């Protein structure tokens, strides 16, 4: 492929490979630094040896590529906060009864049902200056306001590890936070944190103050909470206050990217700014000054919008585009993308594992690759039809890039995505322009006008439209199992399809057909792996939840009426490509080939005669003498699920320890799986 003739693209691929290897190989920072320095020195030596000889060019090229792989390995390891000596984890003494922690509020996150959440920067642990990020969970209190960005607090509440999920194949918030360099968290309330005086402020703090100022000015326009939340997401990049119902509507309609400030928004803003500052070109060196203004304003907007991975990625890419366009420098979009990826990963290697980062680049690459192909399929006569056709081809092209990743992370496919984007995308530039104008008028103190009311009506229309699309449940395909291997094979197939279009020969046809066969084979392998049988005692607070997996079927037994739709069961079933049936009530005895599981509930019945009991599951806090049960049944394992009083669990654990019998509590060790 001609694309691989560009050096920056090959170097970027090698850098990415090195970052991925850093997560799979356990190599120290010092060792990775030594490898990088050695390969760099070898590259320089080989350059002077072979610069006038072409017969060893492949050897030199191989060493160069390995150098960039090693460089990716090194920057990824060196950027890992836990590897730094002044990281706060090195100062946490779990044997100390009291630890004083001082931290700065860094970023406001979307709250959960119980807590308001923040990213915080640790400043001091017991008067030791430290670095590092953590997650702060502050219990919700209607009388207390949101903690301001840049505010500094101190507390004696200890930091704790972020826990992994207790049930198999659940979304791991622990893994997600680790990619954000967050490994610890604080649980507290407003009474246990003390605010300290702070005279220093960061750019994030100033940006937050500006956003708050904009929202205070918008109050006079009397927008509803749903309208304000969409305005904040659409223009200011803040999605924390969007209700779950509205957020789900946009997600199910395949239009969530509209609420995530990214390449689409930054590109439109660049076009608007390019038009606004067009007169600057008339000055001497006007294009140079205009380029500087555009880049500064783009990065100012990126900061105001929160500086997420998608915003930084888009701003980096469009800054390069702005420089190329205004200074008349020829640019290749693939080169531009590669340069922006290379720069971003040099600064933040963990961006590579950000879902938004992956989706953004996959969408842009697919658009620039497939949209010209699709657009040639039809040439409309009228401009309005041409605009709609171009929008549709862009939307469909983007799906080539994002479908494999979306299926892997979200396991659903909104088949009406084309309608959502066809109706809204052509007008998004007008909507964004109108929103920026309304915010500007609000900042100048202008009262409520027909223009501000019209913008509110547009937001209402968008919410209603996507709500209607989301309600068409027959067009939303959910619970689609998709593995990492299938993601890789899918992209190989898409690449072969693209190559086959440009190189219509037998070799690419053969590779395309082979990729289809491999994709089909991957589904067969998944089904083959389902041949094992399992009995699972899931962890579920205040409820009993059991599962019995036989081949590709999953039967559920629970105190819940519709346990098969519970997120715990759905996650397990989707990840393992299982078919679920309607849940049934919990019974006292389960036969697993030659093994038996006895469930002892609140009735405390355990008199079983003539059957050898291998496992005993305690649920619903039964009042029993556990020693008598053990002496009577002589089980191999005792299991307590999440539907028990903790005081009972502690007493049972002590009894089993005394009896030297294995004891498992799902709230501590996670779901218990019995293979049979």
If you compute it from the alpha carbons, what radius of gyration comes out, rounded to the nearest whole angstrom? 29 Å
Calculate the terminal CA-CA distance, rounded to whole Å: 50 Å
Secondary structure category: alpha+beta
Q: Segments where pLDDT lies below 50 for 5+ residues?
A: none
**Strand-residue proportion:** 5-15%
Biggest sheet character: 8 strands, mixed
Mean of all residue-level pLDDT scores: 88
Strand count: 20
Q: Which range best describes the helical content: under 10%, 10-25%, 25-40%, 40-55%, 55-70% or over 70%?
A: 40-55%
Number of helices: 21
Q: Which geometry do the CA atoms define?
A: globular
What can you see in these coordinates?
The strands form four sheets. Strands 1, 2, 3, 4, 5, 6, 7 and 8 form an eight-stranded mixed β-sheet that branches. The protein has a five-stranded mixed β-sheet with strand order 14-13-12-11-20, with helices on one face. A five-stranded mixed β-sheet has the order 15-16-17-18-19. 31% of the residues are buried. The two termini are 50 Å apart. Helix content is 51%, strand content 14%. It is of the alpha+beta class and 676 residues long. The mean pLDDT is 88. The longest helix is centred in the middle third of the chain and has 28 residues, at 383-410.
